[in-house]
Structures are given as structure tokens and as C-alpha cells.
Amino acid sequence: MRIRVRVNGRDYQQEAPDHWTLLRFLREGLGLTGTKEGCGAGECGACTIIMDGLTVNSCLVLAPEADGTVIETIEGEAVAGELSPLQRAFHKHHAVQCGFCTPAMILSIKAFLRTNPRPTVREIQEAIEGNFCRCTGYQQIIEAVQEVTGQREGQEELGHA
Amino acid sequence: MLENVPAAELSCVGRGVERIDTVEKLSGAAYYTGDLRFPGMLFAKVKRSPHAKARIARIDTHKARALPGVHAVLTGADLDVRVGLYLVDKYVLARDVVRHFGEAVAAVAAETPEIARKAVDLIEVDYEPMTPVLDPAKAIENGAPLVHPDLGSYDYVKEVFSPVGGTNIANLSKYRKGDVDKAFAEADLVVEREYTNPSVQHVPMETHVTVGQWQPGDKIQLWTSAQSPFTVRNLFCHAFKLSHNQVRVFIPYVGGGFGGKAGIHLEPLACSLSRAAGGRPVKIQATREEEFSLLPCRSGLVNRIKTALTKDGRILAQQMTMLWDAGAYADYAVNVTRASGYSAAGPYEIPAARIDAYTVYTNKPFGTAYRGFGHVEFSWGTERHMTVLARAIGMDPLEFRKRNALRPGSITLTGEVIREHTGNVTRCMETVAKAIGYGEELTPEWQQRELETGRRIGKSVVALHKAPAMPPFTGTAVVLRMNEDGTVIANLSLTEIGAGTYTSLAQIIAEALKFPIERIKVPVENDTDRDPYDWQTVASKGLMLCGNAAILAARDLLGKAYDMAAQVLRANHCDLDHDADRIFVRHNPECQVPFRALAVGYAYPNGNGIGGPLVGVGRYIAQGLTNLDKETGQGLPALYWTYGAHGLVVEVDPVTGEYDVLKVASAFDVGKAINPSAVRGQIIGGMIQGLGTAMCEGYIYDANGKLLNPNFTDNKIPTSLDMPAEIEAFVVETPQVDGPFGARGVGEHSMIAICGALGNAIQDACGADLTKMPIRAEDVWRALETAGPLLESSATIRNRAACNTRER
Amino acid sequence: MLRPFFYVAPRTKAELLGILRDEGPGSRLLAGGTDVLAELRVAGKAPKQVVDIKKVEAFQGIRFDPGEGLSIGPRVTCADVLASPLVHREYPLLATAAAKLGSPQLRNRATPIGNICTASPCADMAAAFLALGAWTEIESARGVRRVEVKDFFVGVKQTVVEPDEVVTRVVVPAEMAGAAGDMEKLKRIRGHDLALASVALVKHGGKLHVAIGSCAPTPVVLPVLPVDAPVDEVKAEALKVIRPIDDVRASAEYRTFMVQVFIERLMARVEPQ
């Protein structure tokens, strides 16, 4: 089926087999490989993108279902080569280790902060509950979010005994 | 090396600088192996065994081969190639028999994944199921069915390992210290218990993936998500009898490894399919389900511990029998067995010890390295046991640990003498104890919480140690190349799998050169044709060995630059100094030459050139380590010991067994935190990963050896909502004399012993006496059913009035 | 990777019913996709076609009719339920259940009707619908029928819905508006997980309604009891309707125990309006 989507502000029209997931269409059809597959079953959230304003696991959306939608992926986050404030906060707070979950994590938080610009820690945890991270233990990710929301300044210190 | 440089004199080391690899990871620009596409690339799928053990009576691939779009179909019959890290026991595809559920028996490469999958469906396999051996204790009994009847004829590393042919024992490592029998005879008390761990999956977010190309003329290229490019190359060449010059391994960005990508896995299959397909590149990526049983996991462990102690809390002797459930292939498990054996006392002095550590073959998915390399598993038992011992003699468990802790003058199981600069485990324990208010009255907030919820709060402190598990002669090299503009590229083959080591190495290089870190590039991708040798990215040894090599490379580069400068400036070498931009004469600083002018060789105004491009080479190899005596385990295996401790506060529902971790404080003696923010990330990330092992992870099999939970639906890992409510991370800095700027590794340690911390805190809270991993609410509930009367909590002095209202 | 199939997305209910009449057995209905696509990924065979029902305009929306009650269409997601002030005001248990289902990404796609059509014993929405006495409207080219949710499930992942049928609405009766209710869900982790055992409990109009998940081949509901029924009696009724099994998630014994604990907790916590 011919898929028409607007991704990161750019219009695309491309054929994709009916059974392709949106994840595969983004990666293999449009060459946007920043979105990752972690399980293919909607459990880990590594394929999270924003579709019509809502986060979805793109492994659980068929490409034809995305026809006519507006999509945001990690490739649209940095504008003109400049990292977004959220990306800068991740960078500063060591919120990235292997980086495989990072694009999806950024998109989950981005969508969440639009509806809740000053969240509690608990609310941040709930917002990224569907995004597994095996490296960071989530703490530095949460600290990065708090920096973006103006609830924290500076890096959390490592204690010296 | 440079371990005594005062912090005030350091400009880059010791600062939480931003990582050098995150911008591309944050923007989606970082290419992982699965993102790569090559012209003509084919896609592979495997046919996997539904049986734990079966004879392959027949495989018919005719229909698969006939399917349009299929370029290669392979079965075990096509590949008489065995691979193995320490013990060469695994065929690329199963031949004649399958030895575990999920083992690959055939593979297809086709133009699309859909065609490959359809072709796999068309492969017909007739199995004759056989009775599997699943329980490691039964597997070592006389007459047990053999997983590898030909074990006696397999190649293995003879200096280090001891497989027992005609049995399921892939290795037996023995450790003997002191007079154990005498100590047991003289003890006030002997306590013997058994602690168990299931197999656990690493769960890197990126599953294993490889693109292999075997071109005509036997020129091979591999792009693979692996931790150890040179080990992949070496084992590949051994298996296929190729020259090392014929194989080139590239490592793109790696989406997590945790040990699961330390060895060689999908690479031989991808390349074999490519060869069969005429040299087209073949990509094979494990599905998440395949990650659980086609790829390896962490070995299970049955850990029997018998301890002799005195009434006043001194351990006299310990006897341990460790049955490591390796599954169907030895892989790293034999070395996990060895390394855990010599470390199995924990950070305590055991005057007399007898440890027998068995690697046992069973018909289950096989075990490999996993962050902590056995220490997570055995420390569950040993740290539970320490608390059980303390409780048995009515002593506070922290006091008991401190009394027996290793200190300068202590002698380890293998005969190593602990020194002042080895590190300070007691300080780690005291730090975390203070952080969680161990032994203090509960805070008013927590007292109120107990009253309101009817839940009970418990605390614990555990200690841990680990040394790098590696060959005693492990070496590495770093090459620094100066660019025309005075920037520097560092080539090395430790991989950046997420731990942030490359950033720390960039800091070390910057510090050693006195350059700003912005001038240092450490390319994240590795290439065995470009980069110098490194053994593997494992064992928390990378920062130490590569860091030292990096310092030496910096000195080498500067030495060559000084040689040139001395000539250009007509000065003595010894009168020169440098800053970030130039080399100058110390007593006449205007007499100078910029690095830029030296970078690719100096050119005089008339065109004469001297020197040549600046390249610095640093090599470093572990010093003074030995193989261990096979009968006694005596020798020197430890490059260094990193000590640590966790303090944990848990809240338990004493009726249902539901619990929440309220706080974890962790401290590690890292020698020197090169990048404190990265160290904090390792401490917290590993601690949560360890809590996953403790709370919810682990393989579950049916009676026939079928894995029942090979997915995230039934193998949960911690999410953001599973974090402890409060987390604190500390370092102790006892400089490592031979570490770069005094640093030692800490990549694995945060995972270790956290399981014991949870079990002990739960026991402190509600009396549940746990011996099995993981601890699900149901397990606490069952343990409560059989728990004895609640002891007066030793870790937590409660508000007694509040406490009495809730006695069960 | 999914095995190949065709994708069709009818625009009208009539078109959909025609497709199902002609090709029902080879068709797989797709709403939110969070169950269907996960299942197709591991299934040995693909259906001939996947029929996306989200383009049918009539399937939109959450509506309240004072006579009939709350009507939820097949396109409504769990996130829609959570975002509905009407639901929070009149049927707060539905919001509680929707919030317990999956992760944010899953709730943005998963639909309450899809949740009951998957008919997993652990379906979170099913427990809430059962406790609220909801019913479904099922249509085919042959006509419309109404089936109570308590009669909807016939086995593990099996429902009364025939291959040519589609559930067009789930309706929570008007008399349950304003019902006080809550839900307890046993999980293995604090993050998103399936229910190992769950209890949804409603106190309303002098009556007590209790539904239980993950403790039988289907979600089950107790006979309606008086609101002041003693806790022990409620527990005894629960034990009559549950048939829990041992599996990788929990033992039958623990499920049985926790169901009783949950009943105790909810009986104490839920205050009738």
C-alpha cells in the first residue's frame, strides 16, 4: 500500500507491504534508523515514536495504519544540528549509556512534558514505565528530565566517603 | 601509575565531563549493527530445536532450497566446525544431536526476512527425543546421561581447566587453604546451608546481530555487535583454520553487552551462510525470544556452604561446593567457575577453606559471561550465609562482617597478601551503613509508614569484592596519532558497550598530554585491521589496562615530539616543557614550536623535513599474575580487588510478602573516580540490574527442559517504577598503585551482592528466611509461612511501642 | 517481522460487515493492535487479511445515555477512557482499570473492546466491565445481538463472537453510574505487567459486585451480594468461582490467597456513594 506520512515535518509518499510494521517502514522504507527494535512485542518501548501527538510502540502499528498521520521520531529532535534542551540535559546528566533505548526514551518524555511540564518524580517514572533501560537504572534519566523542567540545576554529585 | 597526583593538579581526570559518545546516540545518528545495510545483503533465519535433547534422525531441506529468493540453506551436516572459547565443544549448527531447547539445527539466507522465515518453515526435521539431564546435581551422579559423550576428546586450555571425560563435568576448580578438618573439629558452631540461583538473561536492549561476508578467496568481513573484536577474530580463525590476516572484524555502536556479547556467537553462522551464498553479505539478528535460548544466558548455581565459626564471631573455616549449571556448552562457564572459586570467600578472611567448583553440563541453554562473572550468583548465597551465621550466634550481621573483613595482612584463598593499598572494604560498609541509618531508630517518617501500612521495615548491609577474571598475561595496546592540527586520535580495541570507558580514557589521555579533552578523539567503532590488539571488553579491567597503555602512549608521543622539538629549537631534551599548544624551552619560553608544526613531521623554511608523523604507542600487560595450581588453587590471579558494599532498606507486607525497596546506598573503593558521573552511572545502573536478578528475573523450565519464559511478558526486568525510592552512590578512593591515576575498575561490581542485601533486609523486616533467587512476593509469602518467631531486629532499632502493636 | 497478509480498512460498518460475511474466517480484526500484532508476530501462520476497524466512523466515541448508560465504541482507547471526565465522574472503576493496563504507549493504542475480545484471563478491563455489569453489542450481516460480558467469554482467549461478527459497543448500564469501585492487581514488578490475580469490586445501590481476573480460564464474576455482606462470605463466594492454575507467573495457592487479601482490602477501602 502507498503510505503518505508527515515525519519530522517532511512529507513522504512510499509503497510498503501491507504487513510491514510502522517501525520497519521508518527504518527500512524511510531510512530513519534512529528508532530501534528491542522486542517487537510492545514490551520494551525501544521503538517508541510519536504519532499524531501520542506515543506508540511502532512495532505494534502497521505501516498502513500510519497512512495520513503526523509522526515524530528522534531524527527530528535536534534542529539544524543543535541538540534540543532535552537532549542537552541527557548529555549533561550522563542519562545515556549504550544509547539503544535513548531515542525512544526522549520521545516518551517529550510527549509527556507537553501535557505535564512540571511533573513529580513519580509521574516521570510512570511516563517512562514502558521504556526499558538496562544500563542506567533510570536515575540519571530522571535527573535530566528534572533539569529540563527547571526542577534541578547541576549534576547530582557522586558521594566521596 | 600517576596514582599520587594531587587532585588540585588534575585538570581533566576526576571531573564528570560529558561523555564523548552521547550526541550521536541522542540524535539517532549512531549506527548499530542492525542499522547497517549493504548492497546485495541477505537475511538469515534459523530453525531451532523444540527439544532439550534429541537425536536428529532426518533433516529435509529440499523444499526450502527450492523456494525462490533463497540463496543458502545450511544444516549441521554442512558444517563440520566446532567453536569454543576455552573448551571446543559447540558445532555452529547442531550435528546429529540437539543439546538444548532453542539450539539451531538449520539456517537459511534469503533475499527478504519473509522468504527466509518461510524457507525455515519448509525445512523438515525428524527428532527422536531423548531424556534430558536438567538438574546439575543429578548430572554429576554416576551413570547420568552424558551431554557430551566425547568430552574426553575435546580440545581445551590445559593450563587452566580440568574437564572430566566420561562425565558431565566440563571443569572442576579446586581451592585449598589451611586445615579445614581441624577447624571444623574445633568450632563452636557449624552451619551448613544451600542457596540457589536460576539462569538469568542479560537482556541487552539490542539483541545479538551480525552481518558476515565471506568473499571468494576467503576474505572475510564481519560487522557485529560484540564486546571483543579480537576474540571474535581469533576464535573464528581457529574454527575455520584461517590466517588472522583473512578476517576483519568491525564493531559499530553496541546496544549493551553485559558479558553476553563477550565471546563468539552468530558470527560463524552468518559467514558460513555468506560463503554458501557466493559471498553476499548475510545479516542475522536474534529475535528477543532467540536471545533467551539461541544465545547464551548466565549459568545457574547451586551453592552449598558449610562454615565453622566461634561464638565470638570469627569464621574458622568454610567448605563450599558450587555446582554451576553451564547448560549444554561450556563457553565462559568454565572460567566463571574458576574465577568464582578463588573469590568465593567474599571480602572476608577465611583461615581454612576447601572449595570445589564444578562446571556441569545440562541440556539447557548455555551460560556465558554476565556482568559480575559469577559473583552476583555466589554472593547471593555467601552474603545470605554471613547474615545467617551472625544471627546464629546472636551478633549484629554488620559487626560480624566487619570482624571478618579482609584487612592489610589478610591472606586470600589463593595465598595473596592484602595490603594497605588494596582497598578498604570496611570503609565501604561503614559508609553505606551510615547512609541508611543502620542500627539507628527508624526515622519518624518511616515509623509512621510502618504504623499506617502495617508493613515492616528492614535493613541490611552487605559487602563484596571482585578482581578481573582474565588470563594472567592479559595485555592491551593504545596508539595515539596526532593530526595536522594538533588534535589526537586514539586507536584501541576495548569496545564502548555503554559503560563510558572511552570518555574516561579520553580524560586520561588529555591529562597525560596536558591537552584539553576536546582535542582527543576515541573513535567508538572498532576495526581489527586498524586498531591494536585488546583481549576482550570484560572483567572490569579495561580502564586499568587501557588507561595505563594510554598514559604510556601519551608519553611515547610526547617523547617523539620532544625529540623533534629539541632539534628544531636546538635545545636539550631535558630543558623542554609543553602546554596544550606548544613545546618550549623552560628557561626561555619564547623559544617554542607548536604541536601543529610537529604533527606530521617538521618542515624547515627551506623545505627540509625531519621527524615524520607523530604516533605514540603504549603497551601494557598485567604484571606478576600466575596460573593457579590445579590441586590447591594457590597462585596470584587478581590484577586488583575492587571492594564495595550495599546498604538496603526494604518494606515488607508481613501477610502477603509484597515488598518495596525504600533505599539503596552503595559504595565502592574505585581507587580514583576518573569520571565521577560515569562512575555514578555504573553504580546505579548495575545496582538496578542486580535488583532485577534479585526481584524478578530467571529462567523457568518445564519438566522436559523447554524454556517457558523466553520473552518480556514472563521474564520481567526492572522498569522505572521498580527503582528504590531513594538511591545514594559513594566512592572510597584508596589509590591503586598500578592503576592509571590510581583507578581500578567498577563496571561489574554494583550488581554484586545486592541480592543478598535484599534477602537479608527482608529477613530483618519480617523473618522470612530465603535461599532461592529470585525473591518474588510469593516466595516471601511462602517463607513467612515457615518463618520462625521474629527475632529482635538487629539492623533496625524500632520504636518499640509501634512495633509491639503489630506482632503477628 | 510479520508474515505477509493483506490489509483492509473499511470506511463504514456496512462495508466491514460485508467483508466479514464473505471472508470472516480468513480475517483478523484489528483495533489497537497491541494484542493482535504481538500475537501475529509469534504465530505459525498469518491470516489472509487483517481488517482494520479504526476507519469506521460509527465506532468512535464514549457516549452517555441516561436511559442506557455509558457506551464505548471499538475505536476508543484506554487513553481515551482515562481522558474522559465523564468516565471519571460516573464510572471511575473503568478509569482505574484502564490506568492499570500496560504502559503509556500501550494505553494509547489498546482498546477496552479489544481487551475483552482477546479474552485473556488477565484482561484488566474485563474485570471492571464484569463488576459493573456491562454488556456488549455484537453485529454481523445476520443482525445484532446483545451479550452480557459475563456470558461473553467461553474459554482461554475464546469468546462468543463468531468469525462474521464484530463487537460494536460495550455498554455499562445507567444504573451503575456513580458506582463506587476500585481494583487490586497483583504483578511481578511495579512496572507494567499482566495481572497474576486481580479483583475489581463495586459497591452500589445496596449491592456488592466482585469480579476476578487471572484465576480461571476466563475473567469471572461473583453472584451479586448485598453491600453489607460479611467479608468471609464474599471470600467464600470467590473461592466458589475461581479455578486458578499454577504457571510461570504464580501458583494457584498464592493466587487464591491474594484474591482473598484483595477482597479484604477492597471491602475496607471502597465506600458506597
Short description:
The complex is a heterotrimer of chains A (161), B (808) and C (273). Chain A is of the alpha+beta class and 161 residues long.
Structure description:
- The complex is a heterotrimer of chains A (161), B (808) and C (273).
- Chain A has 2 domains: 75 residues, Ubiquitin-like (UB roll), CATH 3.10.20; 64 residues, Orthogonal Bundle (DNA polymerase, domain 1).
- Helices cover 29% and strands 16% of the residues of chain A.
- In chain A, strands 2-1-5-3-4 form a 5-stranded mixed sheet, with helices on one face.
- In chain A, a hairpin with a 2-residue loop joins strand 3 and strand 4.
- The model of chain A has no long low-confidence stretch (mean pLDDT 97).
- With 808 residues, chain B is an alpha+beta fold.
- Helices cover 26% and strands 25% of the residues of chain B.
- In chain B, the strands form 9 sheets. An 8-stranded mixed sheet of chain B has the order 3-7-1-14-11-12-13-24, sandwiched between helices. Chain B has a 5-stranded mixed sheet with strand order 9-18-17-16-10, with helices on both faces. In chain B, strands 20-31-32-33 form a 4-stranded mixed sheet, with helices on both faces.
- In chain B, helix 10 runs parallel beside helix 18.
- The longest helix of chain B has 28 residues.
- The C terminus of chain B is likely disordered.
- By secondary structure, chain C is an alpha+beta fold.
- Chain C folds into 3 domains: 46 residues, Uridine Diphospho-n-acetylenolpyruvylglucosamine Reductase, domain 2 (2-Layer Sandwich); 117 residues, Uridine Diphospho-n-acetylenolpyruvylglucosamine Reductase, domain 3; 90 residues, Enolase-like, domain 1 (2-Layer Sandwich), CATH 3.30.390.50.
- Chain C has a 5-stranded antiparallel sheet.
- Chains B and C meet through helix 3 and helix 19 of B and helix 10 of C.
- Strand 6 of chain A pairs parallel with strand 33 of chain B, so a sheet runs across the interface.
